[in-house]
Design a protein that fits this description.
The protein is built from 18 helices and 14 strands. The chain is of the alpha+beta class. It folds into two domains: about 200 residues, Periplasmic binding protein-like II (D-Maltodextrin-Binding Protein, domain 2, 3-Layer(aba) Sandwich), CATH 3.40.190.10; about 200 residues, Periplasmic binding protein-like II (D-Maltodextrin-Binding Protein, domain 2), CATH 3.40.190.10. A hairpin with a 2-residue loop joins strand 4 and strand 5. Helix 9 packs across helix 17 and helix 13 packs parallel to helix 15.
């Protein structure tokens, strides 16, 4: 819907004392319905506020938001899951939420799990409200473990053991054709950060990226070990699965990969692709000196754009979605999306505990939120480019085109050049 149409709707529907909030997000398909149901519940319980939800394409959502802000006609709320929060905050494109945390909202920051606010915090202030979180764990295929001579009841406890176990699970035939994978890093540098004791402050200090530290080098070096396996053949294997499925599929979900690092949503994908798959889930194993039972975090966060027409009501809406003083509702609503909560107050609710107990593997993704060593990427104006170039750096290391130190040097230079451009 064009912005002028949205503005017309606001003017037409604001009569009668009901504040009309315009809410944009980037969900589609089944997820759009999940969120719309939550919005409908808010509207039914808040007679003086009505939220109008609009789904925008995820590929262009951030740009559409910036365009709307520049035009002076932004939505009141935007859900962000990309690493764009630092850039929005640095440009003054979204509001500092700290100013709203008075009165009944004074304790909001302390209400969250300590680590979840990191993804939404820039220069010490909260610019994006935590909503639901992405946490990560190691999935292991019990059948493949048994077939490979491993004990399926004893998954790896260290990264060294993971390397040794997964190495026994590869199947590479004539001409180097890959038919089964043990483990293969797919942009896992971030998810492995806690395993090497690597925090966001290790990567970004004094206003610039500093990636050439021993922990980051250990992380990239572990990934580089997988250059042992034929990169082109692994890519052909993965592309072949996608082609056969007529779109996109996951080697682990269909029993062709022994280990993978993923979030709780993987459980839902397995249920769709192969409900009979025999698998387990454990915290990501740690290296010596690393942080066991910890996770890297990102997720769904709500921002109030600069120029929002109803910022106070927008803050009320995003606080409600976050479950603040509304935990019992959130404990029932979040499982409809298979979501990890942002607060221990939601986790301990009977409805959420019941959902966790229905499949105890889900608990692995929630329990890690209690670890103060949980981390995320540095929240900077260059964070989006950093993520893109991190994927490139990992690929260079996997292909043997760059040493781990060269890959991190490349990444550091790219990110710091972006930081200079943003000044």
């Amino acid at each position: 819907m064009p912005n002028n149409a949205l503005s017309s709707n606001v003017k037409a529907a604001s009569s009668g004392g009901v504040v009309q909030l315009e809410y944009w997000n980037m969900w589609s398909g089944q997820w759009e319905k999940v969120v719309q149901d939550m919005v409908n519940e808010f509207n039914a319980t808040h007679p003086n506020i009505h939220v109008n939800m609009l789904a925008v394409p995820s590929a262009s959502g951030d740009q559409k938001l910036l365009t709307a802000i520049a035009a002076g006609d932004p939505p009141d709320v935007f859900t962000e899951w990309n690493a764009s929060i630092g850039a929005f905050a640095a440009k003054g494109a979204v509001m500092n939420l700290d100013k709203f945390m008075t009165g009944k909202y004074a304790g909001l920051k302390k209400w969250f799990y300590p680590a979840v606010t990191k993804f939404g915090t820039y220069n010490g202030s909260l610019y994006a409200m935590p909503w639901t979180e992405n946490t990560y764990a190691l999935y292991y295929n019990k059948t493949i473990m048994k077939q490979s001579g491993l004990n399926p009841n004893k998954p790896p406890k260290t990264l060294d053991q993971l390397w040794a176990d997964q190495d026994k699970e590869w199947k590479i035939g004539n001409g180097g054709v890959v038919t089964q994978v043990g483990f293969y890093p797919g942009s896992n540098f971030e998810q492995l950060m806690p395993a090497f004791g690597l925090s966001e402050t290790d990567l970004f200090t004094n206003g610039k990226y500093n990636l050439l530290n021993s922990k980051a080098l250990a992380d990239m070096s572990w990934i580089a070990k997988f250059k042992k396996y034929p990169y082109s053949q692994v890519s052909a294997f993965e592309n072949g699965l996608n082609a056969a499925a007529g779109g996109s599929t996951d080697a682990f979900d269909i029993g062709k990969q022994g280990f993978t690092i993923s979030g709780m949503w993987e459980m839902g994908q397995i249920q769709q692709d192969d409900p009979s798959l025999s698998y387990g889930v454990i915290p990501i194993p740690a290296a010596p000196g690393g942080n066991a039972n910890a996770t890297w975090i990102n997720g769904n966060y709500n921002m109030i754009p600069k120029g929002a027409k109803h910022p106070q009501q927008a803050f009320e809406f995003i606080s409600w979605l976050a479950g603040y003083q509304n935990a019992a509702w959130a404990a029932k609503a979040y499982p409809t999306g298979g979501w990890v909560p942002n607060s221990p107050e939601i986790t301990k609710q009977p409805a959420y505990q019941k959902w966790l107990s229905e499949d105890p593997l889900r608990k692995q993704f929630v329990n890690v939120l209690n670890n103060p060593k949980d981390t995320t990427d540095p929240v900077t104006p260059a964070a989006m480019l950093y993520q893109t170039d991190l994927t490139n750096a990992e690929d260079y290391a996997l292909q043997g085109k760059m040493s781990p130190k060269q890959a991190l040097t490349y990444l550091q230079n790219q990110a710091n050049q972006e930081m200079k451009r943003d000044k």
